[in-house]
Specification:
Blueprint: H1 2-23, H2 35-43, H3 49-56, E1 61-69, E2 72-81, E3 86-91, E4 94-100, H4 125-135, E5 143-146, E6 157-162, E7 165-170, E8 173-179
């Protein structure tokens, strides 16, 4: 299962990174830290998320990904604060990067009814589906898409799309969460 978690989370992460690269300004700044340093910071059991929550509140949107690196499961998080033009990336709770992001269009609908704390990576499909449905202001139940038809690498992989949220599962275990804003400029009909 860990190979499929790695394949799915990396595949979804690549899609998200490509989308974020397109949404980040050309003047984005990233603090200089190597990937190995970021993973080592996470290994030191530092959790910067509570202090970020205390200072900035819950993020406007976020992404959670579980990936296996050298036999160790690592939780990656990206919290976006659109009004501040900032995204903070965490590796196992340790703040690793602070990236400048572009403004979103005025009137955008932010998915603030979800928080990263609502979703435990490795929770079951039914549990995660229940959380997403319960928190949706429209009581929308996410729709499941079986990705197994994509080939052997995606066997047992399910994507659920709901009210401004995507959930990724491998063998009915949550490995990916992303919330996203809607705006009149993105064809969402707002």
């Amino acid at each position: 299962m860990t190979d499929r978690i790695r394949l799915m989370s990396r595949g979804l992460l690549i899609v998200v990174v490509l989308a974020l690269v397109g949404s980040c300004s050309s003047e984005s700044t990233v603090e200089s830290v190597s990937f190995e340093e970021a993973v080592a910071a996470g290994a030191a059991f530092v959790d910067d998320r509570p202090s970020v929550l205390e200072r900035l509140g819950a993020p406007d949107s976020f992404q959670l990904t579980l990936d296996e690196i050298e036999g160790v499961m690592v939780r990656f998080e990206s919290w976006s604060y659109h009004d501040l033009g900032s995204r903070i990336d965490f590796v196992d709770g340790a703040a690793a990067w602070n990236i400048e992001i572009d403004d979103i269009p005025n009137g955008s609908l932010l998915p603030i009814w979800y928080t990263p704390a609502d979703f435990d990576l490795l929770m079951t499909l039914d549990d995660a589906k229940g959380v997403a449905t319960r928190l949706s202001p429209a009581d929308q139940t996410p729709t499941a898409i079986d990705l197994s038809e994509g080939g052997e690498d995606y066997e047992g992989t399910t994507l659920m799309v709901g009210d401004q949220i995507m959930l990724g599962f491998v063998d009915d275990v949550l490995v990916y969460v992303e919330t996203f804003s809607l705006s009149a400029d993105d064809g969402s009909g707002l």
